[in-house]
Task: structure prediction
Amino acid sequence: MRSIATWFETGPLASVDRTIATVMRRWGHPIVRVGLGVVFVWFGALKIIGISPAAELVAMTVPIVPSELFVPVLGVWETLIGLCLLYRPLVRIGLLLLVFQLPGTFLPMLVVPEVVFTQFPYGLTVEGQYIIKNLVLVGAALVVGGQVRERTATEG
Result:
């Protein structure tokens, strides 16, 4: 009896599998880069215009800086990250800005754990889930950053 993997590798589904993998290889990286850029522009813009649902969490996390100042500045920073990721020649700058921003997104887990956890260490509040989703952003940033040199070599 053939394994399922064999059906996709050499069996009747091999051609379809190769086509799907080729399309995913071709479009995966640009979609991850653009998606990451859109998320940062959108979330940053919400902070700038004062309607971010994360503003209160940000304010609680960094109480030494007035939230009226810190939240919009963070929003500008995030928007810049997103714009850099959307405009390919600036991707490296966006990734550099991201390196300084992303660790801070996990800070509430240490500073205000009562807001993040319903039961430490696995029961998450909505705010905790909002923070944990940043692991996906970290992974997407690694994918984008891992392709920067290859993209430059093939474009230049």
Remarks:
- Residues 14-49 form the longest helix (36 residues).
- Residues 117 and 123 are 5 Å apart (CA to CA).
